Amino acid sequence: GQGALEGEVVASSSDSGDDSANSSDGSAEPGKDREPSMTEVVASSSDSGDDSANSSDGSAEPGKDREPSRGRCCGVGVGFAARRAFKVVGIIVVAITFAVGLIGWPLVAIDSQIFKENLLSVLFVIALLLVILEDHVGVNKAAVMLMASAAMWTFLAAGFHPHDSEQGNEEMQAEMDKSLEEVGRLILFLLPAMAVVESIDHFGGFSVVTRFIMTSTGGRQELLMPMLSLFCFFLSAVIDNLTATIVVLKLLRHTAANDRHVRHTIGGMVVIAANAGGAWSPVGDVTTTMLWLAGNISVGATIKWLFFPSFAACVVPLFGLWLQLRTCSIPSTERPSEEVAEQHIPEVRKANVLVLVVGISCILMVPVLKMITGLPPYMGMLLALGVLWFVTDTSSFHKLAQMPYEHQYHDEEIHIGTRPRTPAAFTQAPGSVVEALHSMDLTGLLFFAGVLLAVGALDTSGILDDYAELLRRLCGNSPVAICSLLGISSAVVDNVPLVQAAIDMFEEKPTDDPIWQLTALAAGTGGSILSVGSIAGVTLMSMEGVGYIWYVKNISIWAFLGFAAGIGTYQLELVTFA
């Protein structure tokens, strides 16, 4: 009995519970189980779990599997060493750049414009490579971009010599304030937008839309992609592509919760649809908003000339990804659609409808406030969060939702001399927005802040201006070539400084000139080519955990085809109607 118990313990520790049942069942003799169990320990430690099952199944001899397992271990060891070496080299480059900027030496390197541009470019490329290989190097992309952006700005700050020159200090502060304004504006918009959407989901508001989608599709996932993509395309034009992406990804999580590959594929299409939808509306994307506020485009002409090109940039990848998903996924005809629908259709209550109506109304209020009063979008989104929070904290809503309301103060329960409670005991109810805020993922916000700060450092050093001028020299006066390269570049570098550089280069062009409309179209749709090229793609990486390499393999080619289709459709419009 004692020998059998020892054999079971050793076997279970080596085979994770599966093979232990084979080696220690009731028919085996305890004494014969000890030797194979020790072999299984050796095999499992050398073959990473797969070969241990083959070498300890009772019929195979353990010694025959050791030689191939050693070769496999060598391959794994080389790959691990390469990943570790690349990570170490990247961190060393970041550390050296930070140290040079911190101590302000050598001055030749700090004051040399050519060395500065080359170093910052190399550092930015290394940071992007670490982000791309996040799953392989084992470092979070937010940590990489935060370290890289801090090192780049430290090196730039040393070049201003703020302690030796008052003018240099003022110039450095001005550049930092410019970059901080852009980052803070987007973060203050993104944070309440995510909170509003998370609160709607927390109180079951999306169950209304989920029920409609499930009843309309009948449980067939092949209809889910076109429905969500077209909804996101038009929604992003009304609000903006960032908020539309968050809303649709939440709906996607409810309607395709059990299939990760389907969610990732549809999520990639949602990014394309959101960016395409934001390109034909002055309030749909930050770049079109920049061009609109600068007086380069008007509302009517933008919708008239860019709707069909944007629609083409959405429909072409939609068709390709729909076919790709349909051929790769398991057919939904294995089970009756009515059975699937009845199993997953959520129950809808009055409180769910109220939360959805209030939340969407508050979101739609953001562009209205911007157009009427000129308030920046983040102020409208902060107001939207405050209104939704106030409504869901009232006793009337809690009664409607049949939730306990614990915001009341009971004077008779508070006695003099007793220890006071913390404020959270009185202000946080079980159904509060605070619970929704706790479930938010902030790593995407930090990653996006690091990317914007790094791009701001490139802009401050003059690298982006030099790149824009290089595009102009290479493409001559061809608006199509310039904007096409600008759109492809926006897949790697944030499109905001690139569009600002285009505004400065072509300031002599009149309002609604084709160069401005092409810039809005290319900068908006080109960011979909890579997952880090737009805030919608970064949101997908944050909310669904989509990796950079997976996006490149499965989404990028279709996004590029959509980008080309959009540019081609616009040129066809010019030839036909101009």
Features of this protein?
578 residues, mainly alpha, 76% helix, globular, disordered N terminus
Fold and architecture overview:
The protein has 578 residues and is an all-alpha fold. It is built from 29 helices and no strands. The longest helix has 38 residues.
Topology record:
Blueprint: H1 2-15, H2 18-23, H3 30-47, H4 50-55, H5 66-103, H6 107-111, H7 113-132, H8 134-137, H9 141-160, H10 166-202, H11 206-217, H12 224-238, H13 241-255, H14 260-279, H15 286-293, H16 299-328, H17 337-344, H18 350-373, H19 377-392, H20 395-400, H21 424-427, H22 433-438, H23 443-461, H24 463-475, H25 479-489, H26 495-505, H27 514-526, H28 535-544, H29 548-577
Helix content range of the residues, please? over 70%
Please give the alpha-carbon distance between the first and last residues.
Answer: 92 Å
Structural class: mainly alpha
The poorly predicted ranges are 1-68, 332-343, 407-417, 422-429
Oligomer: single chain
What's this entry about, in short?
The protein is mostly helical and 578 residues long.
